[in-house]
Design goal:
The longest helix has 16 residues. By secondary structure, this protein is α/β, with parallel strands linked by helices. Helices cover 36% and strands 18% of the residues. A hairpin with a 2-residue loop joins strand 5 and strand 6. The chain has a 9-stranded mixed β-sheet, with helices on both faces. It has a two-stranded antiparallel ribbon with strand order 5-6. Helix 1 packs across helix 3 and helix 4 crosses helix 14. It is built from 14 helices and 11 strands.
Length: 385
Amino acid sequence: MRNVSIIGIGQTPVGEIWEKGLRTLAVDAIRAAMKDAHMETADALYIGNMLSGEATGQAHLGPLIADAAGLRGVEAAKIEAACGSAAYALRLAYLAVAGGMHDTVIVCGVEKMTDRAPGRMTNGLASAADGELEAAQGLSFVAINALLMQRYMYEFGWKKSDFAQFAVNAHQNAAGNPYAMFHHLVSANDFEKAKMVATPINLLDSSPMADGAAAVVITSDPLAREFADKPVRIKASTAATDSIAIAERRDILTLDAAKRSTLKAYEVAGVSPADIDLFELHDAFSIMAALSLEAAGFAERGQGVRLALTQDIGIEGKHPISTMGGLKGRGHPVGATGLYQVVEAAMQLRGEAGHNQVQDARLAMTQNIGGSGATVTTHILEAWR
């Protein structure tokens, strides 16, 4: 297996981008990444996307976007793993380059969600749940996460207000990210007064549906220095799965797939949680942030919320998370989110995160979750020295 590095990154602003279609968003991100990598073509193009058929009536994204991006003829395909689509697309690209099948691959995550009525998108998102055991019973993803949060509070004695700092931190970091959907700060008091969506989850517990695209160019290490001034090495790329239905899990308050994926990543990279300088986690809901911190070994079971309460999750904290706003503050264009996480982590390792820069960042971890924890892909990235 060859070492693999990211040599180009690109992204579009996240938000309600009604003036651009899915194809244009993807091309904008791809061209930005190719320009950053000083490359004009690649061996393959992998597209991470979840809802193009439901949201835009467009399937068959591989050749569609390759053609529009000036890459007609290259191998190109769409990869779908619910909200974890983009990171899993990167994993497949990583395997292709590491295994010597390709020298250079472009990976793009793209989603267009705001052109359709929210109810239709809610139904589309629910298709990532177990169709018979969850969706058919009327469970949306908000409802599933509300059940998890309710049980977590009951089991470990936390109050609703104890989760406030996850939203406060995300919005504070998003304010320093020009690509983020939200640039306003929120307070713990705002969190207390936020409109309830599905008890106990309120509006500030929840990440917003959004449009956006992000892309990276990866290649083998020997080529990386030839094209890039600041390549970022992929130290580990791992994935794991669990049952889709939360009722079928060993323990509904442990993200077993996240735990397995993370432990494999630590083993491959030869590092431990103490070595990770920042963690871009999948904070689709605040309860997911708490469970992810625990699954990744930063907190004991039932204690992820404590890291927020002690403000250890801030840019200058012991375990910085969501450093560019995360899903809550930057926005959550579902099939693109995993690549936004990787682009943002690469910016941190390149020293290009501006006011949100984590000082002396050398190792970053990203974790993208499909469904409520059924597909989890973890990447550990390292700054070249």
